[in-house]
Amino acid sequence: DASDTEKGTYAHYMLKEIDEQPIVMRNIIKNYQNENNELKLDADIRSAMKAADRIYIIAAGTSYHAGLVGKELIEKLANIPVEVHVASEFSYNTPLLSEKPLFVFISQSGETADSRAVLVKIKEMGHPALTITNVPGSTLSREADHTLHLYAGPEIAVASTKAYTAQIAVLAILAVDTANVKGIQLDFDPLQELAIVATAMETLTGQKEEIEQLARDYFETTRNAFFIGRSGDYNVSLEAALKLKEISYIQAEGFAGGELKHGTIALIEEGTPVIALATQENVNYSIRSNVQEVVARGANAMIISMKGLEEDDDSFVVPHVNELLTPLVSVIPMQLLAYYAALHRGCDVDKPRNLAKSVTVE
Ligand code: G6P
To answer: How far apart are CA 245 and CA 70, in angstroms?
Structure first.
């Protein structure tokens, strides 16, 4: 049950919340479907999405990373252009807006001050807003025109895990629902695909020992680490790096595989950990050549691939899911890697130094 606020037998909330992700997927499926197994969303949200000529996603931290995945889902499935902005940047450096913008605020807590500042500003400008949040009745929910709930249950660990996957799942549902409303024919049933994801997540959370061993091999003493990916995997590499930074204090960066050679590769030394995600068919060849480039310069590389695209030497293979939803499964080994890295380095996993669960000041 994801609504429990006790740690129970878990050493840390973070591990408990990682394990709750399959339950959260099933909660979302249940709450966003009607008796006929069709998607269920409020009519006013449907009209707001239909009316928008461009969507502006506003968020911070992990929620911003979920927004990057959401952009891909909404553009590919619902055919609406999407921009994703870090809230604190948007406030002071507001981009040119389209004629009929719809603002989508993504926030686990619904209380992030930077996001609220943008909401206040765009409301003054007269634009509509939808908030996607885990906390019904939160500030961002109350002050927006519409709300979509994450149904993830309370998230207590400072490092966000189940809220990230819940945000992506709800964004996938929103994207497909909008496509339906606009009469776009899709060969993609999000409720079925998310059920497959939930099962894959269960498999992954049952593979903790394997991931713990990888965390020992790669992160026990390192100062830094690089995560690389292309396309959908690039978005996840950003979140993977953030997770590792937040709780293990290892300096970590996520990079687009193709961008490495334009600077970052200069940092690769003997033994530098490079974690490559390879779950996207169209870039499978290119990301693997990036790995060869860093290995040739001494990197300690790990490839995390997906069933169907795997090769013999890959360190870990996640179960196959629909290509648009791979972030929901590939992020789980990333969360667990960060968890075990922090644990073995003696860090305070649930309450990392200098960080707050929700930042209510600018
Ligand atoms: C804080 C938390 C992060 C979170 C970010 C945005 O920095 O430490 O884990 O991603 O705020 O929070 P929100 O509640 O708006 O998703």
So the answer is: 23
